[in-house]
Amino acid sequence: MKYLLIVCFLFQLSGFTASAQEYKYHTVKAGETVYSIAKAYNISEEAIYKYNPDAKGSLEISSKLVIPLNSSKEKVSTESEDIQFITHTVKRKETLYRLSKDYNVEIDEIKRYNKHLYAEELQRGEEILIPQPKKGSGNTELSSTKQLDIPKGNDQETRETREHVVLPKETKYGIARKYGITVKELEELNPKVDVLKPGVMIRVGTNVLDEPVILTDEVFEFYEVKPKETLFGLSQKFDVSQDSLISLNPALEDGLKIGMVLKVPNTDDSENVPGNNDDFADASDNENAGERIDLSNKLSNFNTKELVVLLPYNLNQIDEESISSYEDAILDDRVLRISLDFYSGVRMAVEKAKSYGISTRLKTYDTRRNVQEVTNIIASHDFRNVDAVIGPLLQNTTEAAASRLTQYNVPVISPLSNREMRSYQNLFQSRPTDEILKKAMFDYLKQNAVGKNVIIIADAAHNQVKNELTQILPNSRVILPSEAYLGADKIKGLLSGSMENWVILESSNIGLISSATSALNRLAREHEITLFTTNKNNAFEDDIIDNQHLGRLNFHYPSVDKQYNAMVPEEFIEEYQEKFNMVPSQYVVRGYDLTLDVLLRLASADNLYDSFEKYTGFTEYHENKFHYTPKRNGGFYNDAVYIMSIDEELHLNVAND
């Protein structure tokens, strides 16, 4: 039954992706410009910028551009040489009438250059072209003061400009801040100035702040506020209080605005060193991190949620005309099975969200396990109003999606990868890394090992973990096995007969783990022993390791998820069993928990970023819990970890409830 439903889904998905917009690649030749390429394909320059935002810089010879071939709504007439265009990003509640007044242009003229507006309403976040008459070019010299029309917010204001001579060490951020304009406005004033050089004269505003723009030390840097960012998120990002940010930037007293240039503490030192754990804030620093919250009773935003799921189905490898081909692919391809299980959990979460009054417009795309395919999907579909993207599964494709969607600040949630990822402002790593799991166990041991006799068993490959453990547990004693075997005689002399013995085993060698747990199991007849590890790797799952031994030693380990109790009836589990006649896999549950959390967060705040400012505790569902913390270099990671323990009946229990 499950296979039949999945095969039907795959047919639907293959048909859906086949109707995508057509496009082609153009290889840039020497002497070509965005203008000449747009003319060659009879499309607008804005259409090229939409699919290739990097093209706004200089075009590199032999680089490839995505060219939309049937994007009729992107084509713009360029009949009049006396017309120039302003790109306007539509804001909440803006109307064509309002824009026509702000820019002093007829509504029909706006529609003429944005033909989709004849049939569609304005969408918040979309970019449209506003036609404006070109200014005369009689005198090319800069006068001491000129008038410049710059749209700001919903109001059109006339801004005066003046000249500024660039000094050594000055940056665009510093100059923009000094003259009260955004970096984008500064670049629009000086379109031919790509790199600032001392002595160059540029155009700036006239509203001058009384402070230098030269960076004389490494304590502070300048930062441009991006869409959807909040004061809380920035305070977490730069590890500084909100009051301190306001003190550094008095303009914040009037509120945070997109494009503002802020003075912030410099984070470009030790945090950028690979492997430096300071990139992560200590979970214990957040006094509310241990508070569980239920978002289902905090719902306030009932707008339809735009959700996109990117998964590696790899449908191009399957014969679309053959059901048996789909069945064989499901049986033979583990990644496809994981993707389908995960997506079935996503669908069930969307259905569950309906019971809370949350409607969702769900779309899914096949990434084909390929970075270029991810780029193609984003380039050929409109992601500007998407509330969240879940996926892809693999690290490189997830980073590619986050990189391409930073321009819209669309949240990208990595569902399964536990590898450390590059820092993007919009990237959420929902699965804790091994480093976070280790630190969670460190915290548990540090808080609970008082009064215990602690023994650390670590092989040579785990010397670093041993050193970290001895630092947080200075009274611990250490055993360093020289081979893949450890007998009871080497452990017995370090055990206490009057205190509880906590043994921490750090190894990925099956022989060492097997012999050590067997020896400890025998010694536990006369001593009170509890076994721990900071990393329950695959060696602990090997058939040679006796689970009965682990149970008698009350084995403790950090885990991303907890195992649900199949004997306890739950609506989700019962519904899945009724639909597919089987118990849901961990990937089904993961898809359900993650998606429901995202939808509840979106429905309890203006957007995903805002939800973390409003609710600082953790959320928990069937097997997974989520507490997202900002990374200092950009993005968010989930630091909600379970410390699991196994009892003598081999039942799993949560030790850090």
TrEMBL record:
<keyword id="KW-0732">Signal</keyword>
<feature type="domain" description="LysM">
    <location>
        <begin position="24"/>
        <end position="67"/>
    </location>
</feature>
<feature type="compositionally biased region" description="Polar residues">
    <location>
        <begin position="137"/>
        <end position="147"/>
    </location>
</feature>
<feature type="signal peptide">
    <location>
        <begin position="1"/>
        <end position="20"/>
    </location>
</feature>
<protein>
    <submittedName>
        <fullName>LysM peptidoglycan-binding domain-containing protein</fullName>
    </submittedName>
</protein>
<dbReference type="InterPro" id="IPR028081">
    <property type="entry name" value="Leu-bd"/>
</dbReference>
<feature type="region of interest" description="Disordered">
    <location>
        <begin position="131"/>
        <end position="161"/>
    </location>
</feature>
<dbReference type="InterPro" id="IPR036779">
    <property type="entry name" value="LysM_dom_sf"/>
</dbReference>
<dbReference type="Pfam" id="PF13458">
    <property type="entry name" value="Peripla_BP_6"/>
</dbReference>
<feature type="domain" description="LysM">
    <location>
        <begin position="86"/>
        <end position="130"/>
    </location>
</feature>
<dbReference type="InterPro" id="IPR018392">
    <property type="entry name" value="LysM"/>
</dbReference>
<comment type="similarity">
    <text>Belongs to the leucine-binding protein family.</text>
</comment>
<feature type="compositionally biased region" description="Basic and acidic residues">
    <location>
        <begin position="152"/>
        <end position="161"/>
    </location>
</feature>
<feature type="region of interest" description="Disordered">
    <location>
        <begin position="267"/>
        <end position="286"/>
    </location>
</feature>
<feature type="domain" description="LysM">
    <location>
        <begin position="162"/>
        <end position="210"/>
    </location>
</feature>
<feature type="domain" description="LysM">
    <location>
        <begin position="221"/>
        <end position="264"/>
    </location>
</feature>
<dbReference type="InterPro" id="IPR028082">
    <property type="entry name" value="Peripla_BP_I"/>
</dbReference>
<dbReference type="Pfam" id="PF01476">
    <property type="entry name" value="LysM"/>
</dbReference>
